[in-house]
TrEMBL record:
Protein name according to UniProt: Solute carrier family 2, facilitated glucose transporter member 5
Organism: Oncorhynchus mykiss (Rainbow trout)
Single GO molecular function: D-glucose transmembrane transporter activity
Membrane topology: Multi-pass membrane protein
Lineage of the species this protein comes from: Eukaryota, Metazoa, Chordata, Craniata, Vertebrata
Transmembrane segments: 59-79, 91-111, 117-138, 150-169, 181-202, 267-290, 302-324, 336-354, 360-379, 400-419, 425-449
């Protein structure tokens, strides 16, 4: 219980950070027909003619996809606001954005304006895009290295919890009704209020105070308060190594991160297995799950409850990953996780192709779906959140998170836009695209990326330098290895 205040900070950051992402992703499936009906009624009131089906579907699609656009903008700003104003103030501002979005949702029905829903969804996306990145930065910079993997992985746990909560409150017995959908859409304001009020009682991230602001005393007090520990010599020495290296250099931009040789392999490790996790096929699994459930005789009214079961399975497996990550390591969990996902999805392609041969084949497919979700939670889902916190030092971290967030949101947008067309064209063979990605990511992690478990930031950088400067004993660009963020 020595770190109980740090665990409490983890809870506060999760509620207003990654929990929002999970809830906003899953909550939209329930009010779809109610919102489309509202759009039709609003259109009829304005123009005295009902909206045609294609226009209604276009508006609904934009309501769904504008969330990704907002997330991308929020991810871009996560590279500047937390550096200029601090991690804590950036999150406080971010909560205000979520509250404005919630108010827009509540009053949209009264104002008879679906445009308010569009703006609210954009602001929710901004809130999530900013919150995800700053959540990980704040937590990683407040954690001891022995707990860094476990605590940063909790962001995936909160995403899974948010998905389950969004599915539960969206069922018709709770808030998934015609008169309750504005309040359902405004539910994201509640976690924002909780985080805004509670975060005021916590200090700024200690590493930000020490390295970026040069506030040695403030950083020490923050560490003592969070860790309940007086002997902080090792942590202070570790931060001092970062601050002493080439002070006064300008902060690194996104272009610097993309073009500098000294972080080349870190960027590859950030983008290929982590930021591109959307391409592992988990969305395809969720899409095909309902078809397989129908073939197994599951009634339509029970589909929402099964989706809760799928979300709960993912949440449980991610929770198990949090217990394994600092024992098995990031490399093993993610590398073999992608490998197993590729193997199971290959089997699923075969089983879907011959599903009519025997009546019990659909039940095998159900088992395969739950297996993929379990492996995804145990490996790629959790590690993709924890690993980026290990890869970059202070000067590079904000811009690195901008890249990660941009790729992640772009991937989500592309999957949402083009996946239905891929399914129409390839059917169950669409999984082969995701199998190829999983196999490539597995080989990349296992063959090239060094383990980061239990290492300080400088040690991790030394391991990556063996890749960045392979076959080169000296390189002048090593001198460009900035560890302090200044403007």
């Amino acid at each position: 219980m020595q770190y109980w205040r740090l665990y409490l900070l983890t809870l506060v950051l999760g509620i207003g950070g990654s929990f929002q992402y999970g809830m906003q992703v899953s909550i939209m499936s329930s009010p779809a027909e109610h919102i489309q009906s509202f759009v039709n009624q609003t259109w009829l009131g304005r123009y005295e003619v009902p909206v045609d089906d294609s226009t209604n579907m276009l508006i609904w699609s934009f309501i769904v996809s504008v969330f990704s656009l907002g997330g991308w903008v929020g991810a871009i700003h996560s590279g500047s606001l937390p550096v200029t104003y601090g991690r804590k103030k950036a999150l406080l501002f971010n909560n205000i954005v979520a509250l404005v979005a919630a108010l827009l949702m509540i009053f949209s029905l009264m104002a008879k304006s679906f445009e308010m829903i569009l703006l609210g969804r954009f602001l929710y996306g901004y809130n999530v895009g900013m919150g995800l990145s700053v959540h990980l930065m704040y937590l990683g910079e407040s954690s001891p290295k022995k707990l860094r993997g476990f605590l940063t992985l909790t962001s995936s746990i909160f995403i899974g919890l948010g998905k389950v909560m969004g599915q539960i409150v969206g069922i018709k017995e709770v808030m998934g009704t015609d008169d309750m959908w504005p309040w359902l859409m405004a539910l994201g304001g509640l976690p924002a209020i909780i985080q805004f009020v509670t975060l005021l009682f916590f200090p700024e991230a200690p590493r930000y105070l020490y390295i970026d602001k040069g506030d040695t005393e403030g950083s020490k007090k923050a560490l003592q308060w969070l860790w309940q520990e007086d002997d902080l010599k090792m942590e202070m020495d570790d931060m001092e190594k970062e601050r002493e290296s080439m002070q006064g250099q300008k902060s690194k931009t996104v272009w610097d991160v993309l073009t500098s040789r000294c972080v080349r392999w870190q960027v590859l490790a950030l983008v290929i297995p982590c930021a591109c996790v959307q391409f592992c096929g988990i969305n395809a699994i969720y899409f095909y799950a309902f078809d397989i459930f129908r073939e197994s005789g599951v009634a339509e009214d029970n589909m929402h409850y099964l989706s809760i079961g799928i979300g709960a399975t993912e949440l449980i497996s991610i929770s198990l990953c949090s217990l394994l990550i600092d024992r098995a390591g990031r490399k093993m969990l993610m590398g073999y996780g992608y490998l197993l996902m590729g193997v199971i999805m290959s089997i699923l392609v075969v089983m879907l192709s011959i599903k009519d041969l025997f009546s019990w084949f659909p039940y095998v497919n159900i088992a395969l779906i739950f297996s993929v979700i379990c492996v995804y939670g145990l490996g790629p889902s959790g590690v993709s959140m924890a690993l980026p916190a290990d890869l970059f030092l202070q000067a590079w971290r904000p811009s690195a998170y901008v890249i990660s967030g941009s790729v992640n949101w772009l991937g989500l947008f592309l999957i949402g836009m083009f996946f239905p067309y891929i399914v129409d064209a390839l059917g169950q063979f669409c999984f082969l695209v995701f199998v190829a990605y999983c196999m490539f990511s597995s080989a990349f992690m296992l063959c090239f990326i060094p383990e980061t478990k239990g290492k300080c930031m400088v040690e991790i950088m030394e391991d990556f330098n063996k890749l960045n400067y392979k076959n080169r004993e000296t390189d002048t660009e090593k001198a460009d290895f900035v560890l302090e963020t200044t403007f």
